[in-house]
Design a protein that fits this description.
globular; 32% helix; 5 strands; single chain; HIT family, subunit A
Length: 141
């Protein structure tokens, strides 16, 4: 697997710690809890390989990646019962294929609109992060 030494998803450690917490490895990706939790349960699913676009993946690799995204979405629905999960795949500045999975609730401050990348409204204690991670892990297949 090719890695980029400037990529948080490739290198993890301090680069990742600024915005995320690793939850676990999946079949073709890694799952991270987004530190900013304005939307309870917001996570990132990042491909194992440093690719910028899904068109760089073989059909099998793409299907495995989307199976991981689906597996995580199912766990979020079971753990937090959101009214909707929004999916965001950007990467204009960070060229590593990843999806933000953002549980949305009808009483959210952003219901009916696009979620902010980092609203910087809600950060948690390590214990609170652990509780959310445990809920997600409980429902991952």
């Amino acid at each position: 697997m090719e890695k980029d030494i400037n990529c948080a998803y490739c290198m993890e450690g301090e680069l990742l710690d600024k915005f995320g917490i690793k939850i676990r490895d999946l079949k073709s990706s890694k799952l991270y809890l987004f530190r900013e939790q304005s939307h309870k349960g917001r996570v990132i699913v990042a491909h194992n390989n440093h690719v910028g676009e899904m068109v760089e993946l073989s059909d099998t690799m793409r299907n495995d990646f989307f199976a991981d995204v689906n597996q995580v979405a199912n766990a979020l629905h079971k753990a937090f019962q959101p009214d909707k999960v929004n999916y965001g795949a950007y990467g204009d500045t960070g060229h590593h294929l990843h999806f933000h999975l953002v549980p949305k609730y009808k009483d959210d401050f952003e219901w009916g609109g696009v979620f902010a990348m980092n609203p910087e409204k809600k950060f948690l204690s390590e214990e609170e992060y652990s509780i959310i991670i445990d809920k997600i892990l409980k429902y991952l297949d």
